[in-house]
Amino acid sequence: MSKVVVINHPLIQHKLTIMRDKNTGSREFREMVKEIGMLMVYEITRDLPLKEIEIETPVTKTKSKVLVGKKLAVIPILRAGLGMVDGILEMIPAAKVGHVGLYRDPETLQPVEYFCKLPQDVEERDFLVVDPMLATGGSAAAAIKLLKEKGAKSIKLVCLVGCPEGVKFVQDEHPDVDIFLAALDEKLNDHGYIVPGLGDAGDRIFGTK
Ligand code: URA
């Protein structure tokens, strides 16, 4: 079974409280999404493999470490996932960015793909699928399924706020995918919102209604 990691660093908790407050406007909300994305990625990449190389400092020759291993790709689920991309790229500027767009079929209520553009070397990359809210888990599970169908072998899911229902759904569908959250909230309400949550993340990021 995959692991669920709640990265509850004090800086993240502080920024998340600002996001949760209904009086926080779009500009600050966007900034918080970006900054939390950045802080989370710092933790998520903690175990990236390193190798030692020889370099010369202005003082002497020495051995020092650089990253090796697979390259990363960030896959925001449209549209709210876009808000997390800039923060992640600040930490991993060489990462490629793919996009997955899904809408919910009004009759079947199942997520349907309307856009998918991925980097070419799918099998060679570690993927971070990003979406601020892990609510029902339907979109995240569908995006992960799509990536796997295209050949992705290594996928992590990164969300800001999750709930037990969404975590369980993704774990049942994709037991190989680790889930990283900034907070695991209480529940999903009858309207599909996470409680206490922070409302509609997409609308709050982009200032829409
Ligand atoms: N999507 C959101 O933006 N917010 C929720 O609470 C649930 C799904």
Describe this structure in words.
With 209 residues, the chain is α/β, with parallel strands linked by helices. 33% of the residues lie in helices and 31% in strands. It contains six helices and 15 strands. Strands 1, 4, 5, 6, 7, 8, 10 and 12 form an eight-stranded mixed sheet that branches. A three-stranded parallel sheet has the order 9-11-13. Strand 4, helix 3 and strand 5 form a beta-alpha-beta unit. Helix 1 packs antiparallel against helix 2 and helix 2 packs across helix 3. It is globular, with a radius of gyration of 18 Å. The termini are far apart. The mean pLDDT is 95. Bound molecules: uracil. Uracil binds next to helix 6.
Topology (SSEs and partners):
Layout: E1 4-6, H1 10-20, H2 26-44, E2 50-56, E3 61-67, E4 71-78, H3 82-91, E5 96-97, E6 99-104, E7 111-117, E8 125-130, E9 133-134, H4 138-149, E10 154-158, E11 161-162, H5 164-173, E12 178-181, E13 183-184, E14 187-188, E15 194-195, H6 201-206
Parallel strand pairs: 1-12, 4-5, 4-6, 4-8, 8-10, 9-11, 10-12, 11-13
Antiparallel strand pairs: 2-3, 6-7, 14-15
The structure holds uracil (URA).
Largest sheet features: 8 strands, mixed
Mean pLDDT: 95
**What helical percentage do the residues reach?**
25-40%
Could you list the spans in which at least 5 consecutive residues all have pLDDT below 50?
none
Radius of gyration: 18 Å
GO molecular function: uracil phosphoribosyltransferase activity
InterPro entries: PRTase-like, PRTase_dom, Upp_B, UPRT, UPRTase/APRTase
Family: Belongs to the UPRTase family.
Protein name: Uracil phosphoribosyltransferase
